[in-house]
Amino acid sequence: MSINTFFQHLSNGLALGSLYALIAIGYTMVYGILRLINFAHGEIFMISTYVVFYGVSIFYLPWWVSIIVAIVITGLLGIIVERAAYRPLRNSPRISVMISAIGASFLIQNLAIVIFGGRPKSFPIPDYFNTVIQVQGVSVPIVNFFIPVITLVALVILIYIIEKTKTGMAMRAVSRDYETARLMGISVDNIVSITFGLGSLMAAIGGVMWGLKYPNLIPLIGLMPGLKAFIAAVIGGIGNIKGAVLGGFLLGMTEIMIIASLPNVTGYRDAFAFILLIGILIYKPSGLLGQDIGEKV
Amino acid sequence: MKRITFLLVLILILSLALTACSAPAAEEPAGEEPVAEEPAAEEPTGETEEVVFGVFEPLTGAYAAGGAMELEGIELAQELYPEVLGMPIRVVVVDNKSDKVESANAATKLVDQEKVNVVLGSWGSSFSMAAGPIVEEAGIPAIGTSCTSPLVTLGNDYYFRVTFIDSFQGVVMANYAYDVLGAEEVVIIQDISNDYAVGLAKFFKDEFIRLTGNEDSIVSIASYNTGDQDFTAQLTNIKAMNPDAIFAPGGYSETAMLVKQAKELGLEAPFLGGDAWEAAEFIEIGGEAVEGVVFSTFFDAAAPLTPESEIFINAYREKYGEDPASVTALAYDAYILAIDAIERAGSTDPEAIRDALAETVGFDGAAGVVTLDENGDAVKNAVIKTVENGEFTYLTTISPK
Amino acid sequence: MIDKKNIIRLGLILLVLAVLTILNNTMGKYEIRILNLAGIYIILGLSLNVINGFTGLFSLGHAGFMAIGAYTSSLLTMSVIQKESNFFVEPIVPWLANVQIGFLPALLFGGILAAVLGAMIAAPILKLTDDYLAIATLGFSEIIRVIFTNTQSLTNGALGIKGLTRYTTVHYTWGIAILTILFMFSLRKSSYGKALMAIREDQTAAEAMGINLFKHKLLAFTIGSFFAGIGGGLLAHLMGTIDPLMFRFLLTFNVLLIVVLGGIGSISGTVISAIVVTIMLEWLRFLDGVIDLGFMTIQGIPGLRMVLFSLLLMVVIIFKQNGLMGRDEITIDSLGGFFARFRKKEA
User: What number is the ipTM of this complex?
Assistant: First the structure.
């Protein structure tokens, strides 16, 4: 492998990894507070890309307005999903909640097929984002510079919210123990809603970035990114935002680098992510940055 | 209280879904009035006096787009030719959900419950293959539309098709790469979870090695999976190999992304592909990046192959205001070939139709002249197209040797 | 008393067999196909019920185990010529090229291989709880699918296998379904079954009672995978063709739907809901096509059927978590009780 090729791979891995990281942040927030794999996260992500598409191509909204609309709608959708599918089951066995989550995910996916149709749509990209920059023989589409920056900015803002604000403190309390938090006068329902809203908002930002990089919209696009983001969150230690970012970068980089070094196994790509997931679950279930929480009896 | 909220949300979502869909649904019947009323008007005169064409297509799921395009062709054909032997033709459409199990169910429903005389479909070879044993057992002839895998008709006396097969298509593209592009070294990047792409890659590879006489002329075979969006790692590897051309069999939505990312990485080698690329979305998604790609397909509106082509193209333009896709033409051909076979047989008996189909020679379809060989596969011309200024553009026609 | 019950049981089974034979001879191919599918879904539903229902482990890997059973049995029943015509991209591996055995042994072999692989897969991940286990099993089933897609000379990759002799008949599907039902009832009665349910109710307490968690969970997975493999083999020989795409998550979803609707843990619930869901999946097909109400036609909306099914799943899990039967069963006793009450009313 020439040095140029290596740096090209590195740049590709960085871009893919930061996208995974961006989506994983939302995933991990929701898990942190509800201890629930929100299967519908990928679907919420998918909806945001469609909102931008329809905003630009049907309602002729300016590009940035569509993005804001998408973020708002997607945030609301997250809150609705939580109210409809998860809240009624808060005191039920976790298996029930999970089945409900799978149901919600299939429901949104199929509603999207019904409403948007199965044919792929082309995500509208402003010309500016179509530019490719050459750095020492390495080609970098301009959007690849934006994604890591946005991921890091989002990370900093969220850490600020969680560590420094009252709401953030309440979130941390709820994620530890509902009952105690409630006794402390925290409105658990509101905090959960806020978390879902924030998480979905992150999914929307991830969706917009994904669309800019991969402008191919089908109702199933949420599926794989959703699973990969979950894997990233597990690698980093689920519930931990910094961990999610780290996990995302690692996963993206691993995927690219395995293909780079073993070109004959390209067809097995998706298997690597799952093998990585299972490996982490077996050997370090709390993830790289997660804390070990013993089983509650 | 919570439950009431939940119910309200459900109702909201459902009503949203229904209103969103009822809008186009409400408009459509107006446009399709002749189709909807034809069978109804005939009904009182005699219930048994009709011919039933069963259509199974992926109308939902991953390949809904393909199914929708083919259905357009069949609907158009029915508007133009609503009758055969003086009897009205009723078209029964079932969805195979882009799924093999469902496809077999759908085919069983057609031959068993709907008592169809002929089965038409489907987009996607694997769905057609799932239906294969069912139509054979029932003794109902089936006409494949755009299913190009050799396995569909192989060893099945009841399955025919109006399209050429992948082995021919692979040979055509290998010859194009060798003769026209003068390529010596080619890289293949295939969708490994797509039977069509894997088959095409194999036929291309065999022919290209035969042409060059060099076992290593296929430098590398890279793979990806249906639904993948990121191909940068594979493409960076390919760029380092510096091939003369890249053969990339796969679905249009993945390959459009693939070619776009290749151009972003500065990969200059020309891309070659198969008929699946021919969809408006390929250009919409790929944008400027797909300019200059070359692929083989069945048909081009700019180069009518037969008088029937003109009738089809004009009718389609009038109804939809744009140029038809290749698979739409093939579905149209499947329908009119069925009519032709029934007329030649002078009967609507499935066995008689089958025998007539097997003897099809020089049938003028919208997508070229069809002669069926001993397997029931069409021997016909392939059209080579490229993308120029955001449009599919006709390059040349290649005849079978 | 026990003898009497057994006689009633035997009578019931014979009755079911008689009804099936009559149906088999009178129904059209389409109905028979659905009947076959219902039988297969009963086997699949029950096999998932051992893992999810009896033991309370949440597995989402069923499609993978089915794939193993389907591929194994198919590769074993195919004739040499069938193999040659299918494997045209790459020839089949030599050690499989000339093997051909009967349908039943092939089916059994598929089940056993699925069970062995199921146990091997489950062993390292059994210590995971709830959602982690679910996602790990989902991961394994995806890995199996990816491997089957890539091993061209073993599974024929994406091209799949075509032209299988369609051995599956109502006798096979329902015969095996009945055997499965009987097995499930006796499993639940046995000390193993009681241990599994103890684990479901309270893992820590069960462990304190001296139940070997690992051994019993592994047992549940092995049994579940075995029957999933059998179901997969039956499905393959009903369809006559298989490919890796058949074994996506959607297939697991269908089986999960059956178990949840029937009542997680209930055998009779699973059986009833397998039949109902299979028929509904077909019957609701009209939603995707044109709906003719006589005075107006509604253009069908593709996808609406799956919307309805996912809604159904959610509504059941939110409003009636116990499904159709909860953990109750239709037994000889309850039937007896039902008729006794009926008689009293009449009198």
Answer: 0.89
